[in-house]
Design brief:
The complex is a heterodimer of chains A (478) and B (910).
Chain A (H helix, E strand, L loop, with lengths): L1 H29 L5 H11 L3 H28 L4 H30 L6 H13 L5 H12 L3 H17 L5 H13 L32 H17 L4 H15 L10 H10 L2 H17 L6 H8 L10 H11 L7 H15 L4 H17 L29 H6 L5 H7 L21 H9 L23 H5 E2 L1
Helix pairs in contact in A: 1-2, 1-3, 2-3, 3-4, 3-5, 4-6, 5-7, 7-9, 10-12, 11-12, 12-14, 15-16
Chain B lengths: L1 H6 L4 H11 L11 H6 L6 H17 L4 E3 L15 E3 H21 L21 H22 L16 E2 L2 E2 L22 H7 L15 H46 L6 H7 L2 H17 L12 H23 L45 H6 L8 H9 L18 H4 L4 H23 L19 H8 L4 H14 L8 H20 L7 H14 L4 H28 L13 H13 L10 H14 L5 H21 L4 H13 L18 H7 L14 E2 L15 H22 L5 H19 L5 H24 L34 H78 L1
Helix pairs in contact in B: 5-29, 9-10, 17-19, 18-19, 18-21, 20-22, 21-23, 22-23, 22-24, 23-24, 23-26, 24-26, 24-27, 26-28, 27-28
The chains are: A mainly alpha (478), B mainly alpha (910).
Chain lengths: 478, 910
């Protein structure tokens, strides 16, 4: 009796619920203000009653598809209501992803296997990536909550991105920018081992079959990753993005790529670009040369060209010198080449700030020590403008510059440069100790302590502010 | 004994017997002889002891358990080892005897202050026979005698060998000399003048002389010498007597002469005048004069006034010394360690060694020391790695794993500024203070009443403690009057007047530094004469307390550096910063830095004020983006100031040349085209574009000279630099370039440094030919030809560098070194020093162990001795007490006996 009554009571409740859900749905679809009702529907959808939740999910689907067509798409067109929209975007994405999960599960149940609701994801990605300015919050949510955390989402994301970039040959700057933003934000990387893929948004049916599926297969992941990055690199990138990609290339991209050799074109063109971009490309190139048998013609000539007047001033000089030490470390390099580099570096050190000189001296010392054949100095026929290290006559020239640097105004540098006056018995310098100096570190190290002794006074006390015959009085009138 | 024991195959009894007889215990010598008795040796005393000991030694020697045999593993032919057999007992015995002789005797004489030591031969040796003793004594006596006599053994008087028959002097018998008149005077008696003949004939030169047939005997020669010497002595005495007579005569006549002397000036000598008057009067006045003279201060000897030549020479030496010290500091050596710096006025280095300027009323004199000035040690202290900012290194590392957050690498190629930026808090903090001061000082110059003359000034002031108090004092006076105030303050609080004045004067110096900063900021500018005068005062005052004022200057430099950092950050960021921001390099900064250069020894290798200041200036020159006229003026003045710092030391400052070349190029080069810019100097796109403001595009017939006012100028709101001003900058650059050519002419890389300038000057001359007045063209050509000439000279004189010779290092071997006959005892350490050290350490340990053992044995010995003494003492005490008791008991028994007798008697009586 009681059971029957209960059942009938629950049926009654169900009917009421369904009615309520329909009402909410109408509300939501009608006016966007009542979005809170979506939560109520969601609650019902998660509820125990099968019929009611079915109705609720359907309703949700309709609401979301409606939102998808109205809300998000609309919003990409007018992005003025950002404050409101950021929250909306995030919520919409969240709900869509949730929906996707349910759909995936449902699809899987229907097909009796595994099916990822790829179309829906692509639609979401399309919407997000094509928008003029997706909020940081949106990107972060998308990356942190889904792409980073779930292997299947990531796989389909990379695939989708690759397809999108291939289609958008004309190059929509916004898409490229968005893709770049999302891809650089992703922290997780494809694993080498298939068994490490374990976290899925849409659960595959059985553990054993996972490796047969694309989402559980390491090679598939790597391939998707590679395609996506290569697709991005093919686009027209601005200098900032270029630098960012180059910066993370050798550590975050190359090791996880299926075929790193395909980066050759990208790196070669970057290396040829000159300036800081070249310096950054050097790292990736080095990895390719060292580990993937890349043969780069005229490599040293180009390296020589990178040692230019701004070298000691650029931000990435530490990186460059680390690599330079590696590249010139081989004992099989011809003497003229080493000589050319030494001569060029010392020549540039003549106009470098102390932070640069302090790097140049150890570099030159290490090179001279490693290549004793260089140590035959004569006259100075060095041609600073010659681009080919073989023809610049560096081997026949003296290191006058080092002699001058021994009288550098900063006493520590002068002392350091005196090392050339002594036999080359000192161990080679550890370059790392010298790379991170700046004017400020020098200044602070000088002024951090109060000196023990008072500063020495001049022999003659001043009788005027400017001495007669002072350089200043010669061109300045008061 | 051990040896005989070991080798013999005799029976133990035989061995004992033989050893007993060898020791003299048995046989004929065993008993006390008569001689022994004569010597006082009795059988009971020493002899017995000796015997006991000998017996003990024999006993232990015969004891096989006391024989230690060191077995040898290998028998080596011809090798004798001392320690094959060691008789422990004998060794112990020996050690004991030795201790007895040393420690024991010391113990005996412990509390004794002195002692007679009998050094007669054989007196302490019990073993020596009296005959032997006598013989030894006799031979020694004979030896002594013969040695003595041979000393004066002249050829002719060797009558008795070894016997001294008579006393002699200079080989002559004293008996033969009836007088001592003809003796040669010994050295201390007189000049010892000996005539030439004697010297030529008899002293060392006389050997070659053709003498008479008979060679003079030594005695004759000596006689002659003595006779002549005596004669001279006599003559000298006569002369002296004559002198004495003459002196006596003079003394006698002196009274008369003195009267003549004082006759002339009667007034000055009242007592002399009185001599003419009454006797009574004279006496009184004489007494008065004497009393007066007693109390009159005596004239003290004065230091001799130095002649003009001497003064000049001294001055010159002082300057030379100061210069030497400076040179040493320039080379980074401590000036104190200079060997010749033991100057008596070593305190007066630096300022005190001033040139011969006229002494002034407020001269500081030399009563305070200019602090010794050598900071070179510091230069070595600073380590390159020391000052790494964590921020910076982090920044570098972060590049690799950056997560999109550092997207700031967009346009600027030059780095450093991002990491170089210090906190700008202190800058904002210091800002209002400065502004306040400036306004006050503005009041100073505006409110000043030029009408009031110096006479209206009070003569005394309270010493100002800070700048506000100073403003209260001088707020109402003109600048000229302020100078008078400074002068009066310095006189009032002269360092010699009170030790507290040191602080007041150093306060004044710091105030003047601030005042100078404020004055240089004024608009219209304060006349240079005033500023020069204040600079001079500062220069003279700084030596009062170099520590404090030096620290103040250092802090000023740090403050300026912070502003520079903030400015660099600003200039790197936005282009429109100039609209609101004030000039970075204020005129006051420039003035103070210039003053520091001349205050401190700027040629030093390391100077705690000047070196950081150089660093700050160079950072400004190389990283700041110059756009406006005041920027360029500041840059040019800084280049000038740096030139002043390197005028003597000629150190290499890359930033100045880069700035000069870039500015020169900027006047003619196309900012859009980087290929157009010659030279090696670094040039980022941002800087290049900023330099575009300096590009001369129009024609101008005038050149606006760079003035001090440019430093604070913003030149209208349009911010455009006029062509005349550009030409002014160009002219300044050219002049400075010529100065730097001179400075760096001797540097080895002169050609490398200045060859790019040729091309730049070529460009300048070519492109300004139709735009600039002739003045500029001439200057360019002049500098060009000068540069060409210098480069040519440098090319001609430069010899190629040579690598210093050094022995090539052996290639490091990594094959393990095998020893074919390895022994665990041998040392295979290839390091000779380490081996030696190990050896020495072993020796030390061994010695230490031995010493400890010896000391322990010594202590045992002393303990045993002490015990023995104690027992002896106890024994004697016991005996004494027993004796005493015996006597007492005896007495007592006697007494009792007597008592008994008496009782008996009494009973009997009764």
């Amino acid at each position: 009796m009681s059971l029957k009554r209960k059942r009938s009571e629950s049926k009654k409740e169900d009917k009421e619920l369904i009615e309520q859900v329909r009402k909410w749905e109408a509300n939501v679809l009608g006016k966007q203000q009542n979005l809170n009702d979506v939560l109520e529907i969601l609650k019902v959808a998660k509820g125990a009653s099968v019929e009611a939740s079915f109705v609720a999910i359907n309703a949700l689907g309709r609401i979301f598809s409606g939102l998808l067509s109205k809300g998000l798409m609309n919003r990409t067109k007018d992005s003025k209501k950002l404050a409101d929209d950021a929250a909306m975007q995030v919520m919409a994405v969240k709900i869509l992803m949730q929906l996707m999960q349910h759909e995936g599960a449902n699809l899987g149940r229907l097909a009796g296997g595994y099916d990822f609701p790829n179309e829906m994801l692509q639609a979401v990605l399309q919407t997000v990536l094509a928008s003029e300015s997706p909020s940081d919050h949106l990107v972060r949510t998308l990356v942190d909550a889904y792409i980073d955390s779930y292997d299947d989402v990531r796989l389909y994301f990379y695939r989708g991105v690759a397809r999108m970039l291939a289609e958008e040959v004309a190059g929509d700057d916004a898409v490229v920018r968005n893709v770049f933003a999302v891809m650089t934000a992703i922290r997780s990387v494809p694993h080498k081992d298939s068994s490490e893929y374990g976290s899925f948004w849409v659960d595959p049916p059985a553990e054993a079959d996972r490796q047969q599926l694309a989402v559980g297969n390491a090679q598939q992941h790597q391939k998707a990753f590679t395609e996506a990055w290569l697709g991005l690199m093919r686009q027209r990138l601005d200098v900032g993005m270029y630098k960012q990609i180059l910066l993370r290339l050798h550590k975050r991209i190359i090791p996880y790529m299926a075929e790193p050799r395909r980066l050759m074109d990208f790196l070669t063109s970057a290396y040829d670009a000159g300036g800081p971009v070249s310096l950054l490309a050097l790292n990736g190139l080095y990895t390719l040369i060292g580990e993937h048998n890349l043969n780069y013609p005229l490599f040293y000539e180009k390296l020589y060209a990178l040692v230019d007047r701004s070298l000691f001033h650029v931000r990435y000089r530490a990186r460059f010198f680390r690599l330079l030490e590696v590249f010139l470390g081989s004992s099989h390099l011809p003497a003229y080449l080493i000589a050319a580099f030494i001569k060029r570096i010392t020549r540039l050190a003549l106009s470098a700030p102390p932070s640069g000189v302090v790097v140049a001296i150890p570099v030159v010392y290490n090179l001279l020590k490693a290549h004793p054949a260089r140590q035959q100095w004569q006259d100075d026929p060095y041609d600073a403008l010659e681009r080919d290290p073989a023809k610049c006559n560096a081997l026949q020239s003296s290191l006058w510059e080092m002699a001058t640097l021994q009288t550098h105004y900063y006493p520590n540098i002068a002392t350091l440069a005196r090392i050339f006056n002594e036999p080359f018995h000192k161990p080679t310098f550890l370059l790392e100790d010298f790379l991170d100096h700046t004017y400020s570190t020098f200044f602070e190290s000088d002024t951090a302590r109060t000196p023990k002794k008072a500063p020495a006074l001049a022999v003659q006390p001043p009788t005027a502010l400017f001495r007669a015959g002072d350089a200043v009085t010669e061109f300045m009138s008061f | 004994m051990g040896k005989s024991n070991g080798s013999s195959k005799q029976s133990a009894l035989k061995r004992l017997r033989s050893s007993l007889s060898a020791a003299g215990l048995t046989g004929p010598k065993a008993h006390v002889t008569k001689k022994d008795k004569k010597r006082g040796v009795t059988k009971a005393s020493g002899r017995n002891e000796d015997r006991k000991q000998k017996l003990k030694a024999i006993q232990s020697a015969m004891n096989p358990f006391e024989l230690q045999v060191n077995r040898k593993k290998l028998s080596v032919l011809g090798l004798k080892r001392k320690d094959e057999q060691v008789n422990v007992a004998v060794a112990r015995q020996k050690a004991m005897e030795k201790r007895k002789a040393t420690i024991g005797s010391e113990r005996k004489n412990r509390n004794k202050a002195g002692a007679f030591i009998d050094r007669r031969i054989g007196e302490n040796d019990a073993k020596m026979d009296p005959e032997e003793k006598m013989l030894q004594r006799f031979t020694l006596e004979r030896q002594k005698r013969s040695r003595n006599s041979s000393m004066f053994n002249l050829e002719d008087d060797d009558d008795v060998e070894g016997a001294i028959t008579s006393l002699t002097h200079f080989g002559q018998s004293l008996d033969d000399m009836d007088t001592f008149d003809d003796m040669v005077g010994s050295d201390d008696e007189g000049t010892g003048a000996i005539d030439r003949d004697t010297v030529a004939g008899d002293h060392f030169g006389g050997f070659e002389q053709e003498g008479p047939a008979r060679k003079k005997t030594k005695a004759e020669v000596m006689q002659e010498v003595i006779a002549k010497s005596k004669q001279f002595k006599h003559e000298r005495q006569l002369a002296k007597e004559q002198d004495d007579e003459v002196r006596q005569e003079l003394d006698d006549d002196f009274a008369a002469v003195r009267a003549l002397l004082f006759d002339g000036d009667d007034d000055s000598k009242p007592m002399m005048k009185a001599a003419d008057g009454e006797d009574n009067d004279m006496d009184q006045s004489y007494d008065a004069a004497v009393r007066e003279l007693i109390f009159e201060q005596r004239a003290r000897p004065q230091d001799r006034l130095k002649t003009e030549d001497e003064l000049i020479r001294e001055e010159k030496e002082k300057l030379e010394r100061a210069e030497r010290h400076r040179q040493r500091r320039m080379d980074g050596l401590p000036s104190d360690s200079e060997p010749e710096s033991d100057d008596e006025d070593g305190l007066k280095k630096g300022y005190a060694a001033q040139s011969n300027r006229a002494p002034e009323a407020d001269d500081l004199g030399d009563d305070f020391a200019v602090a010794d000035s050598d900071d070179e040690g510091n230069a070595a202290d600073i380590q390159l790695g020391a000052g790494l900012g964590a921020e910076e290194s982090e920044d570098e590392d972060d590049e690799d794993r950056s997560d999109g957050s550092d997207e700031d690498s967009d346009s600027e190629d030059n780095d450093d500024e991002g990491s170089d930026l210090g906190d700008s808090d202190s800058e904002t903090e210091s800002e209002p203070k400065k502004v306040k001061k400036v306004t006050k000082a503005l009041k100073v110059s505006a409110d000043s009443k030029p009408s009031s003359s110096d006479d209206a000034l009070p003569f005394t002031f309270t010493a100002p403690a800070d700048y506000d108090q100073w403003l209260e004092i001088v707020g109402d006076y003109t600048l000229e009057q302020q100078l008078v105030v400074i002068k009066r303050l310095r006189t009032l609080y002269h360092i010699r007047l009170s030790p507290q004045n040191k602080e007041k004067l150093s306060n004044l110096c710091i105030i003047l530094l601030e005042h100078l900063a404020v004055l240089t900021e004024q608009d219209p500018p304060v006349p240079m004469v005033i500023i020069d005068e204040i600079s001079k005062h500062i220069g003279e005052l700084i030596s009062i307390d170099v520590d404090r004022i030096g620290e103040h200057c250092r802090q000023t430099v740090i403050e300026i550096h912070m502003r520079i950092l903030a400015a660099i950050k600003g200039s790197a960021g936005t282009a429109e910063k100039h609209v609101t921001a004030p000039a970075v390099m204020r005129p006051s900064d420039v003035a103070l830095m210039r003053l520091f250069v001349s205050l401190f020894s700027s040629s030093d290798r390391y100077n705690s004020v000047v070196t950081p200041m150089l660093m700050a200036m160079c950072q400004f020159l190389s990283q700041y983006t110059f756009t406006e006229v005041n920027d360029f003026a500041a840059g040019l003045v800084l280049v000038g100031i740096i030139h002043e710092t390197q005028r003597l030391s000629r150190r290499f400052v890359p930033e100045t040349l880069s700035f000069l070349f870039a500015t020169l190029s900027a006047t003619v080069c196309d900012p859009a085209n980087s290929k157009d810019w010659n030279g090696q100097f670094p040039l980022s796109k941002r800087q290049r574009e900023a330099y575009g403001a300096l590009c001369i595009s129009d024609k101008s017939s005038t050149v606006a000279p760079v003035t001090w006012a440019w430093l604070s100028a913003t030149f209208g709101d349009e911010g455009e630099i006029t062509t005349a001003q550009k030409l002014g900058v160009l002219r300044s650059c050219l002049l400075l370039a010529r100065k730097y050519i001179d400075v760096y002419f001797s540097t080895p890389a002169f050609i490398e440094l200045f060859t790019p300038l040729q091309a730049i000057l070529g460009q300048v001359s070519e492109r300004t030919a139709d735009k600039a007045p002739k003045e500029i063209g001439d200057l360019v050509n002049e500098v060009r030809s000068y540069l060409d000439e210098q480069l040519e000279q440098s090319h001609a004189s430069r010899a190629p560098l040579k690598m210093q010779y050094h022995k090539p290092l052996a290639i490091q071997s990594i094959t393990p070194k095998f020893e074919s006959n390895y022994s665990i005892d041998a040392h295979y350490d290839p390091n000779h020093d380490r081996n030696e050290i190990l050896k020495l350490r072993r020796q030390v340990n061994k010695e230490k162990r031995g010493a400890v053992r010896e000391l322990r044995r010594d202590a045992q010995f002393i303990q045993a001795e002490r015990l023995k003494e104690m027992r002896e003492k106890d024994k004697t005490y016991d005996a004494k007490m027993k004796k005493a008791w015996g006597v007492l008991e005896n007495d007592q028994s006697e007494m009792k006996k007597l008592d008994k007798l008496r009782i008996k008697e009494q009973k009997g009586k009764i």
